[in-house]
Amino acid sequence: MTLITNHMPTAELQALDAAHHMHPFTHGNELGRKGARIITRARGVTLTDSEGNEILDAMAGLWCVNIGYGRDELAEAAARQMKELPYYNTFFQTTHVPAIALADKLAELAPHDLNHVFYAGSGSEANDTNIRMARTYWAQKGKPEKKVIISRKNAYHGSSVGSASLGGMSAMHAQGGLPIPDVHHINQPDWWSEGGAMTPEEFGLARARELEDAILELGQDRVAAFIGEPVQGAGGVIVPPETYWPEIQRICDKYGILLIADEVICGFGRTGQWFASESYGIRPHIMTIAKGLSSGYAPIGGSLVCDEVAEVMNDCDFAHGYTYSGHPVSCAVALENIRILQEEGIVDRAGSEIAPYLRRKWEALADHPLVGEAKIAGLMGSIALTPDKASRARFAADPGTAGLICREECFANNLVMRHVGDRMVISPPLVITKPEIDTLIDRATAALDAAQKRIEAEGLMVPAS
Ligand SMILES: *Cc1c(COP(=O)(O)O)cnc(C)c1O
User: Cα separation of 190 and 323, whole Å?
Assistant: First the structure.
């Protein structure tokens, strides 16, 4: 057995990867032929690959490395905890200090009366918890028929059977027999693609009112909850019109259904405040958290729960939990992450200084001939690629063709920017500096120029009819 290390030639590592490693959300054989890019180390906002390229990670990994790479304090917190108590569970009337301390910290940070946490190992698991908790809550209140959870098309809530059912990704529903029963999807507030002749404000109201229509159609006595990402992330950083969330809140209040804010991406500073529910004036009963909670240094997620729901749930024996619910090492890492985000003022600076600077630069990309709209919420942004700005046209080519070309040009320019269909998205670490933002924008512009040339040369600059 050969020792596999960073020092092996890239091609050999790629061959081993293709032989034995099945990648998520990937066509295995296609990747096998190309060879995966091998990331060997990272610092701040910069990744290094096995060929020595230095790449600006404008995605913070998968939207999660809010604090940036290479913080030794988090590694030390993990090592300390592993030596003291590497594992114990919280199932059988036991607890431990990291779980207690993190719960206390989260109750302090979270808005409104989200004073309780049910831990999970990931965002997907937390949303599975939410499905069972919302339904159990209503059953406990003598309304077991309130089971339906209303979500949105093109939402992303995770990849497990439950959370992917909540999600509205048709490609995911097409595999493995999803969705589970009693999940209902309404349309998303994506004005650029679907707003037609309406103003964004009119469209935001119209899309929110689909929730009211769905409640009336399904019956108020059957609906348990509505779930939404304050800003849709994996769906393409869809920033809703300002009219959207106040109307959703009004409808949830009026019909007495639970509001679940999935802040797995939005939480922990991404939108410039600790939680997007604060930015958008949302009062959730349950909030899903993960990703930025530990800045991705250790796997952890959870459901923040309001006083009223916690009171009802605490009156029953909820037959639910994960081996790694409240894992002590993950809790210790999350605590250290939050301590640094707070004490170094990283979230505050992201909101007050970095976000406005990035917004100015990002919105200017809308002047590029290939770019329709440029949207941004704090430090998550997107641009829509289009063959014709004036008519907000899609490409005639398959969705994602132009986006993929643009992503390849980003890679060639040492920039990680992801494509979702024909939208390009960013979500950089919150610690990104102004000069690094300049570099990001320079590389994005060079990639857009190169992508435009290729798209034109391949005869793809054609609007769908
Ligand atoms: C990533 C994500 C999830 C799933 O989290 P995992 O940790 O990958 O299971 C859920 N909701 C949203 C909004 C996400 O972006």
Answer: 38
**Alpha-carbon distance 306 to 321, whole Å?**
19
Per cent of the chain over pLDDT 70 is: 100
37-70+346-457 has CATH 3.90.1150.10 classification: yes
Q: What is the whole-number distance in angstroms between the Cα of residue 235 and the centre of ligand 1?
A: 12
- pLDDT (tens digit per residue) in 369-385: 999 999 999 999 999 99
pLDDT of residue 112: 95
Q: Which atom of ligand 1 is nearest to the CA of 123?
A: 5
**In this predicted structure, what is the pLDDT of residue 1?**
59
The SS3 call for residue 184 is strand
At 78-96, the pLDDT tens digits run: 999 999 999 999 999 999 9
What pTM was estimated for this model as a whole?
0.98
Please tell me the predicted confidence (pLDDT) of residue 448.
98
Nearest to 255 by CA among 285, 286, 212, 319: 212
Residues with CB under 6 A from ligand 1: 122-124, 127, 156-158, 229, 233-234, 262, 264-265, 290-291, 301
CATH 3.90.1150.10 segments of the chain: 37-70+346-457
Tokens of 243: 């009219």
Mutation to probe ligand 1, out of 63, 119, 124 (largest number of atoms < 8 A from CB): 124
Dihedral sign for Cα atoms in the order 38, 79, 342, 229: positive
Place of tokens 């007495």: 256
CA–CA dist 381, 12 (Å, integer): 36
CATH 3.40.640.10 in the chain: give the residue spans.
73-343
Say which CATH architecture domain 73-343 belongs to. Answer: 3-Layer(aba) Sandwich (3.40)
